């Protein structure tokens, strides 16, 4: 439709070249609203063509473009005094989320399984090391140490101290059965627990319900009752120990089978952790 301004007829024509069209549109002063709207439509159509949107509907053509080419075109048009069209910038957090590779639930499950297995393996290795070299729990299966230890008590047997100092009289020790007991049918891994009465070089004697060490009677407040048997004086050999149960008349100990080799010692029973009512040192 021809338009008039100051007596001049202006026709909108199709122009093949972009530069020629811009020259005509910029050099022709058009103030009529319809012409201005048509000019904006032509500019927007060209912008959307560069963004690959030339086939979109009219309503879509007036949507805000987001490609880099259109951003540059809008800035240039704004600098020339044309209509400014706001352009939304992409959300950086959204871009970061889209660029992060997603982990499937199956992969996440197996990753957690691997981590749990690693933790379990480390815990088992530490428990094994502690049990072999540092300490271990033991269960009291007999009444030979009554009243100090009862059947069912559980104690901690530490294995470090005897690497730095020799066993002493009064210590309660856990040990593997010596050859004499193995000959009686006890297995090698069937541990015993007794109290050390005499160490290498000392002379032990049992007489009149008393235990004598080097001729001196022991003050034994920990025994269930005095021994009702006699034993002639014997000297404890080097590298051996003389051990007895606190339940003197119901204990299979050194007065029956002889001396205990020190290498048979497993450790020192130092602490009772069960039952809670008897929790503490032994």
Question: Can you characterise this structure?
Answer:
The protein has 282 residues and is an alpha+beta fold. It has 8 helices and 14 strands. Strands 3, 4, 5, 6, 11, 12, 13 and 14 form an 8-stranded antiparallel beta sheet that branches. It has a 4-stranded antiparallel beta sheet with strand order 9-8-7-10, with no helix packed on it. A two-stranded antiparallel ribbon has the order 1-2. Residues 1-18 and 53-87 have low confidence and may be disordered. The longest helix has 30 residues, at 105-134. It has helices at 18-27, 33-50, 58-61, 68-79, 92-99, 105-134, 179-183, 254-257, and strands at 3-5, 8-10, 135-139, 154-158, 172-175, 192-198, 203-207, 210-213, 216-217, 231-235, 240-244, 260-261, 265-274, 280-281.
Write the layout of secondary structure elements.
Blueprint: E1 3-5, E2 8-10, H1 18-27, H2 33-50, H3 58-61, H4 68-79, H5 92-99, H6 105-134, E3 135-139, E4 154-158, E5 172-175, H7 179-183, E6 192-198, E7 203-207, E8 210-213, E9 216-217, E10 231-235, E11 240-244, H8 254-257, E12 260-261, E13 265-274, E14 280-281
Antiparallel strand pairs: 1-2, 3-4, 4-13, 5-6, 5-13, 6-11, 7-8, 7-10, 8-9, 11-12, 13-14
**Mean pLDDT score, rounded?**
79
Low-confidence stretches: 1-18, 53-87
Q: Note the overall shape.
A: rod-shaped
- What's the number of extended β-strand segments? 14
Order of SSEs = EEHHHHHHEEEHEEEEEEHEEE
